[in-house]
Amino acid sequence: MEQTLSARQISVNALNYFEEHNKTDQSILNKLEGQDRQQANEYVQGILRKKSYLDFLISRFSVVAVEDLNPQFKNILRVGLYDLLFMDGTPDYAAINESVELAKNLAGSRSGDLINAILRRVQREMPNLPKPDHKDRTQLIATTFSHPEWLVKRWVSRFGEREAFQLMQYNNHRPSYYVRMNGLKTNDQNFKLRLEKSGVDFEESDWLPSYYKTDALNTIRTKGWFRKGFCQVQDIAAGFAPTILDPQPGEEVYDLCAAPGTKTISMCDMMQNQGSILAVDIDTERISTIADNVTSYGAEIVKIQRADITQERFKLVDAVLLDAPCSGTGVLAKRADMRWRRKESDLEKFASQQDELLDAAANMVKRGGRLVYTTCSIEPEENMERIVHFLDTYHNFELEILEDYLPEEVLAKDGKSYQTLPHIHKCDGHFGVLLRRKV
Length: 439
Hints:
Layout: H1 2-21, H2 26-29, H3 34-49, H4 51-61, H5 71-86, H6 92-107, H7 109-124, H8 137-145, H9 149-159, H10 161-171, E1 177-181, H11 188-197, E2 203-204, E3 211-214, H12 217-223, E4 231-233, H13 240-245, E5 252-256, H14 262-270, E6 276-281, H15 284-297, E7 302-306, E8 317-323, H16 337-341, H17 345-362, E9 365-375, H18 384-393, E10 397-399, E11 418-419, H19 422-425, E12 431-437
Helix pairs in contact: 1-3, 1-5, 1-6, 3-5, 4-5, 5-6, 5-7, 6-7, 9-10
């Protein structure tokens, strides 16, 4: 009971922080370990995935409007509701009692009584809970699927209602994860043996070698395999960018906007620790994360530099990977906070930044060299539109066909770009192209 309460309290603290700063802070969750941390993360991400729907229910069962509730009280109530409705392993009485005790500890006995009354009303009506009934179609969809209205309008217009619903439903499910086996520390045969002996269920990808889909990250973390560098968390779609860049042993490579360094490590593995990789990022704190990961994973050929690539000059190299900052609309299942942090106007800001970064990256590539542009967005303005704009200016670059590198189902009709969509490909949404500088 004490451990559950601890996970709940940390969850409320994390949600309070998000409410105040419009961003998450992993250091709050890092105060817990093991199952406690996993449970707190489930609360935070799950509640952010279902926030609009949970707040709709609160509005129906509370005499005080949602926007007028004290943020801490509201977040305790959200945790209790999420427990009642979506946490299969928690009995109803425990979901209610724990929330009541938490409210009493954090906000006083009167708050505990109010939480108790609201949650017991919800419990009684669970077989017939009210459904959103907004007359405005966009508002109705946004509340039902818990996505911002601007994104609902955009996706319904682009995909149609049925497919937009499928995409939003996928974003609201608990995500599965991939781990990539690190060939610098082990091999696939030994790694699969480790997984089997540890009782970890996994599915080996037939798209790329050494990628394993699993829901048992906590077991892998407990075993210390991340710390020892045997594997890293990396979605299969994130692995496409290093794959199409195809860095070879002995080459000089830049990884731009490199944090946290998973693609850097992938490329080091592909290069068999021969050659050189310069991992560049502008953020000092994120640079330290790259350094920690490079050390853990045995990526010996990697050097790290903090720099604004639009302001500094770099020598020409064989290959450059630019993982550009973006809206993140392809990873909303894993980063539920992103849907509430982004505004439609951000797309224009990101596009401008992406153009600047592409311009800088292009001027680092040797004649005959390669440049990969990739994002974790599914928005055309950040993806192919940026490449069309780039090629209008840089006539000395051309798009390469990707059919020798990636499965046909993720490629555009002309084979010159890839785009994964979460509801179709059951992975994160990523875009990428391979550009070659003409000789």
